[in-house]
Amino acid sequence: MRLVVDRDVCDLHGQCVFTAPALFRFDEAGQLEFTAEVPVGAEANASAAVSVCPTGAITLLE
Amino acid sequence: MTELRRILVVGGSLAGLRAAEGLRREGYEGELSILSGERQMPYDRPPLSKEVLTGEMEADAVRLVVAEDLGAEWILDDPAVELDLGRRVVRSRGGRDLRFDGLVIATGSTPRRLRPLDVARPGICELRTLDDALELRQALAARPRVVIVGCGFIGVEVASAARALGSEVSIVSIDPPLIVGGALVSGVCAQMLADSGARLALGRQVVAVEGEPGVEAVVLDDGTRLEADLVVVAVGARPVTDWLEGSGLVVEDGVVCDACCAALGAERIVAAGDVSRWPNLLFDATPMRIEHWTNAVEQGMAAARTLLRGSDAQTAYAPVPSFWSDHLGTRLQTVGVPRLADRSVVVEGSLAERRFVAAAYQGDQLVAAVTYGMARALVPYRIKLADGRVPASGATA
What we know:
heterodimer, A: 2 helices, B: FAD/NAD(P)-binding domain, 20% helix, disordered C terminus
């Protein structure tokens, strides 16, 4: 599975970082970084991050 | 447990939608109906007190995406009026009798009313629904003198939008601003409101409204008279449980649930979102009710799991609550439960710059962290709150 973030829609709430810190993080400048290729076993975590994004910026592709 | 063939979700907003999606994701293939008192398909509420008021967002943009393959029957504009636990039937205002094997209660909350502020009177309004927001936007466009009664999220966000649109704004509130965020947040928010030009009458309440048929002024309990064209009542919300009275469910400021969101006193009934009161064992055994967006999402999904699998250690719902509020050009964010704290310590940034992170403790125990403008610095606290706490006792209450 693969994560995609629409940077135009992302508003840097950080809910994905709170929910799935193994997949999403803030860099030093406060911008969002993420692991696009979801490791095996982290699928549920990735899906939870999609659900808690207030702006719907994250998509999980099969 | 008997097989579930027919699940009814009562409430067609965020928690109800996420519960319905959760049921399908967990493999439920039976009949699924969603009964909603709203005229509209689900929409997102946070923008209603922000971008929708300022015109940065149109009504269409707040609609929540409902997947075509959800496979649910939507019944709109028809609120539930009665639950018959014996027959396992929900009756709607329109006279429908909806039978269920499993039930998700997600009826949310509704604005509290406060005398003498009659929202049916022209010039007095409240904000909960998309229709409310569009009406308020139209009223604000004329740059009325606004009195906002209440100083929670809605009050502060409406004040922010109204100031941005050029209105004179007064806030009348018994409580200081955003008490849910704790004393530090409250003090900073009050200062920001004052800096924005809003007038604050804290510790005060409205005793009379002048004008007929509209509004000309409100009179406060200290005799102050505030001229106004528009009064916005934003004094909090109460859970929508009227329809459950006498049903046999335990209703005490919300539907009382076990640690897995299963309603006490019933089989295969769960509650999620604003209407649910459950013990979050990450904190303590006292049932809590959370009116935040993130909780509606997470608890909707958790309640779906419990409905399908039953209450056990795997389906316990023990989240780190979080909320945000955009106002006055910045963003407030919290993880944990600030109201449990007896002291807060600024750990980064400064109050004077309105950019800081504070850790909140109950005794020696971290219970929350709050920030204005520094979301990144909350991350380690979120992790600590999730990992560092030991659930108070077993998974089921």
